[in-house]
């Protein structure tokens, strides 16, 4: 197993302010195509064939020299950075975990630390890298001091302090989405259309067992006897409507209401009750694949699709039943909607698209479009919020860190540039208070410090520290 070579701090750009970039002029634009076998959906060039986001047929990302030049951001002198290395990725090979012995006897991941990243700015930079030798990282979730990662090897790894802590293996289906509840249940969405449920042991925290799937077997058998519970998905093919029949691309939790939302390439949004795993609703939400779903403020749920629309659903109680009603279509465009994130404190929803832009809306009397952020020269694949920060990961291999200002504008604080492939997923957790005060200036600036996890199609998970002030 080859260990990735360490690079010195001066050999590779990881995080630059805009001022530093404008003085350097050393970045060369490049674009790269990634391919992977095993999926029947057509994809544009910015993602692999087994990617969890399905672009619209009306748009694709071009890698030739005739690509349009995006306008400058009104909030900063926005540029479109790219890394100088070009790495080609082969087809997905068989996972080394498919062995007769325990699949976690030997982890195929390598942990690396790059302390040189903190020489210039100890509050911001790359902490470490976890590299996997086969397969892409499609999903991750952070819960406390644990990190859960999913890939196209059909396995979920659990990390603690970036050390191999535990893992569990599904029987089939690339792991496209992961969410974790406060009671230590883990829900995973898969390429085969299934949602699997796992739970950690109280006696042995390192042990995770599968405790079911959605829908439950009991509900599946009960519903299957009634012909009215079926929907026609293609000629002479009917499926049970409480079950996804295509890849589960996204999951979102609302634990206060005890609900789980799932979106799928089958164009539906499904609502599940956490207490008994019952499917409460199956909504034909879009005209194309649902790429992203997020539970928001004011009983609202947002869904984005390859059909280019961003829709708003409101939870309403009708008699004894709960229904989600379409109340607004915030956006309709040719480019696919690929990522969503919500700032619950300020009631802002962010929407990333395959054209590299991020649009955002604020709640006033109603949701109002407030602007467009330009920071990526290729598709935005993932978004995450952390306090006043917005993190955007793109097919251009970069992570932009934006700060929402008091007047509602956004300033790019830094660009994290260490990945060698498209950034597929992001998660952020606030750093523990005791770690805040380790430095000499801890707590004096009134800033928040965040640990950011990023998963990429370069087969790695990287861990960063970011703050909400510009360096």
Automatic annotation (TrEMBL):
Q: Which Gene3D superfamilies match?
A: YVTN repeat-like/Quinoprotein amine dehydrogenase
Which regions does the record annotate with the repeat WD? 241-282, 283-314, 330-362, 373-403
Kindly give the SMART domains that the UniProt entry links to this protein. WD40 (SM00320)
* Compositionally biased intervals (Low complexity): 47-68
Taxonomically, which superkingdom? Eukaryota
| Residue ranges with Basic and acidic residues bias | 32-42
Keywords associated with the record:
Repeat, WD repeat
Q: Where is this region: Disordered?
A: 32-69
Q: Which InterPro entries does the UniProt record give? A: JINGUBANG-like, WD40/YVTN_repeat-like_dom_sf, WD40_PAC1, WD40_repeat_dom_sf, WD40_rpt
Protein name per Swiss-Prot or TrEMBL: WD40-repeat-containing domain superfamily
Which species is this record about?
Arabidopsis suecica (Swedish thale-cress)
Q: What is the lineage of its organism?
A: Eukaryota, Viridiplantae, Streptophyta, Embryophyta, Tracheophyta
